[in-house]
Write a structure and sequence with these properties.
By secondary structure, the protein is an alpha/beta fold. It folds into two domains: about 100 residues, SIR2/SIRT2 'Small Domain' (2-Layer Sandwich), CATH 3.30.1600; about 80 residues, TPP-binding domain (Rossmann fold), CATH 3.40.50. It contains seven helices and eight strands. β6, α6 and β7 form a beta-alpha-beta unit. It starts with a helix and ends in an 8-residue tail after the last helix. The structure holds zinc ion. Zinc ion (ZN) binds next to loops. The site of zinc ion (ZN) has 8 residues, from loops.
């Protein structure tokens, strides 16, 4: 944050990545989870993703533990806005913009290395974990804490735990069901066999 050159390079790389985000669309996993929430079957989603695709799919209750690349935030005050116009401004001006409110330092509203996770979001995530009766972990290696503690806490409080991941995880020994498969394949298979009319979108 102290180096102007590093901040310029950060904005340059993020602006390139932003184009890929803008083109990305929700997949069958995002869409199925959004359906489950609409049907009252899913309390919400706790995610480490920063791409905003769960919201694009229609999910309402999404806890973004690592923030979002869809917004720009000030490091020095509470200002934040959608990223699109600010990324465009950076590209047009070729200089890092300052906070319009306090002249402070702007960056994408993601949690970068060295930043702490958002306290309120994390608190709600732990609340959901303690209240859940079924906790699904989807496509997480479950090695980074405190995120990896969430399924553990859910399990301790009596929830069933389902782990879906391509590879084994450190929490496999406490899971009620383990599915080692790519998410897309699993959700495609589930949608094929589902004959519940409420699951049709
Ligand atoms: Zn500011």
């Amino acid at each position: 944050m102290a180096s102007a050159d590093s901040r310029y390079e950060y904005w340059r790389q993020k602006s390139e990545a932003h184009r890929d985000f803008a083109d990305a669309t929700p997949n069958i996993t995002h869409n199925t989870l959004a359906n489950w929430e609409r049907n009252g079957r899913l309390r919400g989603i706790i995610t480490q993703n920063i791409d905003g695709l769960h919201q694009d799919a229609g999910s309402q209750d999404v806890l973004e533990l690592h923030g979002t690349a869809r917004e720009i935030a000030c490091m020095d005050c509470d200002w934040r806005e959608p990223a699109d116009s600010w990324v465009a401004k950076f590209v047009a001006d070729d200089r890092v913009p300052d906070c319009p409110k306090c002249n402070g330092r702007l960056k994408h509203a993601t949690v970068s290395f060295g930043q702490t996770l958002p306290t309120e979001v994390l608190r709600t995530a732990f609340k959901w974990a303690t209240e859940s009766d079924l906790f699904l972990t989807l496509g997480s290696s479950l090695v980074v804490h405190p995120t990896a503690s969430l399924p553990q806490i859910a399990r301790e409080r009596g929830a069933k735990l389902v782990i879906v991941n391509r590879d084994p995880t450190p929490l496999d020994s406490i899971a009620n069901l383990i599915v080692n498969a790519p998410l897309g394949e699993l959700f495609a298979a589930m949608n094929t066999v589902s004959n519940d009319p409420r699951e049709q979108s």
